[in-house]
Amino acid sequence: MPQITVHNIESPSRSDRVFWLLEELESTYDVVTYLRMPTLMGAAPPELFKHSLFGKGPALSIDGESFGESGYVLHRILTHPEIMASAPSHIEREQSNWSVHWAHAAEAAGMTWLQEEDMVAVAGKAWVEGRIGEATPEELRGMERFSSWYSWEIDRPQSQNFIDKGKTEQWLAEHEGCNFTGTEKFGIGDFMMLAGIHSLCAGSRSVMGYKVGPHIKAWWQRVSTRPQFLRALERIKTEENLTLRQQKQKQWG
Ligand SMILES: N[C@@H](CCC(=O)N[C@@H](CS)C(=O)NCC(=O)O)C(=O)O
């Protein structure tokens, strides 16, 4: 079997996609965790550039070859002949068109807007709290008005369009009981959709007032109760705690 190292960026992050897949495949893998820097958006430390073209996580090393982009990482695992030779039968082998569609949609039509809303909110709040620079009360009122308008009028309708009006909910309703493969198997579309749906149903976005329909919730329920997924969450927690402890030890001796 190939030697696998997951370069995990501190959660919450898209790393959950990779951990879940590796746990479904019952793979053995090492983990290196990169704690986020104390910047406004929690930037990745520069060491990640050694493993990912854009210096972001998650990244993967497989037999010494490193690369980033979670979609590409999943693709490389799911097309690795040795890994797939022993993959359980509930993991899709030939990617269906639906799987490829949802893998792209997850990042392009989903995360783009969900993430932008976070950024606008965080930046607006930081200005108001005086963490970015000096601003007059009038300027601050303007910024607050702009960021709130931008979030609600530009980002939220786009995100909500992806979640329900834009058919994720409707597609799952039309494919009752199916995963994002269009069958009962799990494929790249499911692993990619995890990050957004996880945050909407149980993570930071679950308290942000998004309307999430019953079919998305049912998919989440199916996934989040799987022992493989629970193992993935446990591994993330264990690895991140270990890195935090090591960092503290380095700092304080
Ligand atoms: N399209 C990329 C996005 C990568 C990305 O933005 N990762 C975030 C964590 S989820 C990150 O590294 N953030 C820190 C930074 O932007 O410096 C992927 O799917 O891997």
UniProtKB/TrEMBL annotation:
Coiled coil: none
Xref: InterPro entries: Glutathione-S-Trfase_C_sf, Thioredoxin-like_sf
UniProt xrefs under SUPFAM superfamilies: GST C-terminal domain-like (SSF47616), Thioredoxin-like (SSF52833)
Protein name according to UniProt: Glutathione S-transferase
